[in-house]
Fold this protein.
Amino acid sequence: MPINIPEHLPAREVLKEEKIFVMDEGRASSQDIRPLNILILNLMPEKEKTELQLLRLLGNTPLQVNITFLNTASYESKNVSKNHLDSFYTTFEYVKNRRFDGLIITGAPIEHLEFEDVLYWDELKEIMDWSKTNVTSVLHICWGAQAALYHHFGLNKFKLSKKLSGVFQHTLTDPTIRLVRGFNDVFEAPHSRYTSVSIDEIEQNDDLKLLAVSDDAGAFIILSKDEKHIMITGHLEYDACTLGEEYERDLKKGIDIEMPQNYFPNNDTTKQPLNTWRSHTHLLFSNWLNYYVYQETPYEWE
């Protein structure tokens, strides 16, 4: 999928080196096709890393995609330069009168807070409510998934006894669902969180369907019955090194943290972890863009 992103976005050169098809605005405008418009609400602190991770995945099918990055107006990130935000991001005020084919709401390291105590919770609620009528399909990741389950379906998160960090096996509950078409019956995926959601509450909710579950990590892929909302409780978008970087960061902060499970080869932190989830990550994003965005979105929103 050729992705149309701002010319000077730092991720552009890395994507080109990785042979990801990046298109400039001139070439995009010359193609007589209707591109998909994807909005990314990036709540992660290290925004440039998340940009690169998501753009890799959005650039891997035959569709043309225009990307718009969104950040919160009610809270200013402290881990990215204001110049970067001003150059490549916009706020909800400037997109609320538009319609988008897809929306991605990322995770955020704020699980210790009640949802109502998050500084931008009211703004996020407004965006989630707006998405019901202005977005064809919404993909929610990690804390973003928990926020969606709470706001749209009334399911609250609960605190774990320790951080869930590592790469875990998951089992499909229904391989016929389009989102997981092509998945292996058992597959691996990384998690990094302090909270979780109840499998029983998901299964008892008539508006939700649990598609993948892990004995160690719990509920993983949840789909709303109307297929508009997709909730992913882990981080399929993570690079091979991401969990290790988070582990080192927490150690430097003096946090009493365990080594990520099933991650470092032979639990040796000097050895490079392997990405054992990449193919399923690409497949999930490809299935989402094809079946839930491209096949469902009207050619002309009006």
